[in-house]
Amino acid sequence: MTGRTKILVVDDELIQRESLSGWFKKFGYEVDDADNVNKSMELLDQKDYDLVFLDLRMPDMNGITLLERIKTAYPLTQVVMLTACGSVETAVEAMKLGACDYVTKPVEPGDLVRIVEESLGQKQIVNEPMNSAPPNGSSDFRENLIGVSPCMRQLFSLINQIAKVDSPVLLQGETGTGKELVAKAIHANSERCYQPFIPINCGAFPETLLESELFGYESGAFTGALKAKKGRVEMAHGGTLFLDEVGEIPLKMQIDLLRVLEERTFQRVGGTRDLNVDFRLICATHRDLAKEIERGIFRQDFYYRLNVIEVEIPPLRGRVEDIPELARYFLDKIRAETNKPITGIHRDGLEFLQSYSWPGNVRELENAIERAVVLAKSRYLSKDDFGFLVRHSGQIIPQTLDESEKQHIGNILNLCGWNITKAAGVLDVSRITLRSKIKKYNLRPAAA
Amino acid sequence: MQSGKSIRLKLALIRMGPLTDLETSVVAANIQAVLGINVYTHNSVNVPEEAFQENRLQYDAGLVLKYLSRYLRPDYSHILGITHVDLCTPILTHVYGQAELGGRIAVISNARLLKDTDTTAALPSRYYERLAKVALHEVAHTFSLYHCDTERCLMRFSSGLKQLDHLDIWFCGRCEFILHRTLANSRG
Description:
By secondary structure, chain A is of the alpha/beta class.
């Protein structure tokens, strides 16, 4: 039983509140109800609800607006929207704003049970991002999927939903965003979780090798093929095949893979026997495949076959609120590995990490923390410990306007050989102004 | 469970609609045998038309419970209504039965129990078993029993006939313990 689960029902109609509350009580849930916005916000302030059932039409505020307020103030609380007449647009809007589901009244009893179970399951994912492990995976398979930002919560919710179906998934995201981890999470939450998860980086093999890696080979198929070998497609039977960098697959092999996806059979290289396979396909790419189709290097039919469900994985710069948690996680991990007595990260260090653009995403963050830990001289990592990021990227460390002005004037003076007239001309200020700035910032020629 | 020791616990079984004596007898016998509560068969009453939902062509189970409350008498502790009409609640498309949690009134419907999922008529033995299961489940709610997660326990929530048929006509150890304690307290 789930006696500790707390549910809030928000609906202006008494009969609906009583009906839903009464039903939940029979499951042993702790249920409260509210008939207006103020009462619902008061109750939310007092109690940590796991789930809110929220009517779309409230007399004093639109349900969507209230949803926004709830998700802003209580991001961990799951919200299911209720409506008497559902429309796709409203459902999409509600889901975008963080609702975990959308119910049209009246609802099938079985559907309501499923919605509650799934919504509570999503809350568990949000609350305990590190505690879920696939039966056949490592305990920290979701390490880089840490996050409480809205986009990550949406991603967790999406993973949960698409894990339940068997359709192909195309993951799109920049390098280092954790595409393989998302693929593993989908596999681990699917019915295929007890079967193998087989990844292959298609960009890491030349064409001939990729063919034998994917499809395997029979003995004698080529020089050196002394024994028959299974390919990744065959190894993935019953489970999930993850094709990373799918945009790198040569055109000819795209046709071969398309055939496997459509007919569920294939032949090993040098073989004549048709082998049956059943796997779920997840692909990933950082390329814009639509453009690759226009360029003629990616087949349109193959693309449509892969792209049944498309998932966009957000770059780290798009979820800066997750950086402190990720940084602490990596710090703990690296501290344990290196045995260095680093206690934490200074506020200025965290602020710097949040202001950096992270072109290499989470992978770059992990590397940066590792390097900073190895080279750190004090117990706390500060902004200065991450200076190497700026030197590498050319990115400017956050500084005040005065600091920027001092640096810029100094650079121009050096460029002009400290010729005041020339420098004032470049800077488009009078010589008097330039002299006062030199005095203010105590600037001196490098040789002085 | 208990058998025939109840003094204060007595349930009135009220038929609403064209139900046979055999149907009411099956329900009464199971309640008496499994829960140890004396069952008294009340005169038939009409289905309350005020519970009819025109837009859904079903009867609101909550309003049926409210209607049944007018038949409460000091000489019986609980009421179970049994009807042929299809029941629903404002939030759910249908229910097999409804009860006041920790209260005194429950109602069950046979409307969705007569046919199998492939719409063929259910075997009589299966139908009567379903009727008894739903009746016991709803009456147990009036003794404050929640839904239970235990596989095949009678208090497990059934969203369809397949799940209902899968249940045993018995309570799991935990539910039986709670029920026994509640019944003992009710008997005083």
